[in-house]
Amino acid sequence: MADLNALKQKYAPVLDTINSFSEYGAKLDSVDLDGEKLHLKGEVPSTVIANRVWDVIKQVDPTYSDLEHEIATTGGADQPYTIKPGDNLSKVSKLFYGNPNHYTEIASANSISNPDLVKVGQQINVPVLS
């Protein structure tokens, strides 16, 4: 019999990632056992965040053979974001892609000529990486 707490602990980085995007509308509706697998049911607001969750799942276990998920994407491909104090595009890239080096893609998608010049309150869209 599968151990729910052991599977929750194994996939804690996935649960934490989904919860870290709650301010954008990501949520977990249920975390339980489905036979011998951890079953996650929830939603994320964009393909960008769905891809981030997938990356974390594959980091935890590339085969994810003990995970069953129903994570719906409720919005579009890109993720809207408002620049906060202390932000730069590298930080935004790290948040949404897990890698700070994709800041140039964010700058390009938002017609930002100088990635070092973003302003608090500025609205941007974080694109899906190709």
Largest sheet: 3 strands, mixed
Question: Portion of residues in helices?
Answer: 25-40%
Portion in beta strands:
15-25%
Number of strands: 5
Summarize the structure in words.
This protein is of the alpha+beta class and 130 residues long. It folds into two domains: 4-73, 2-Layer Sandwich (Alpha-Beta Plaits); 79-126, LysM domain (Membrane-bound Lytic Murein Transglycosylase D, Chain A, Roll). 35% of the residues lie in helices and 24% in strands. The chain has a three-stranded mixed β-sheet with strand order 1-2-3. A two-stranded antiparallel ribbon has the order 4-5. Helix 4 crosses helix 5.
Question: What order do the helices and strands come in, and which of them pair?
Answer:
Blueprint: H1 4-10, H2 12-20, E1 27-34, E2 37-44, H3 47-60, E3 67-73, E4 79-82, H4 89-97, H5 103-109, E5 123-126
Helix pairs in contact: 2-3, 4-5
Main attributes of the structure:
2 domains; 35% helix; 3-stranded mixed beta sheet; Membrane-bound Lytic Murein Transglycosylase D, Chain A; 5 helices; 130 residues; single chain; alpha+beta; Alpha-Beta Plaits; two-stranded antiparallel sheet
Quick structural gist:
Helix content is 35%, strand content 24%. The chain has five helices and five strands. The protein has helices at 4-10, 12-20, 47-60, 89-97, 103-109; strands at residues 27-34, 37-44, 67-73, 79-82, 123-126.
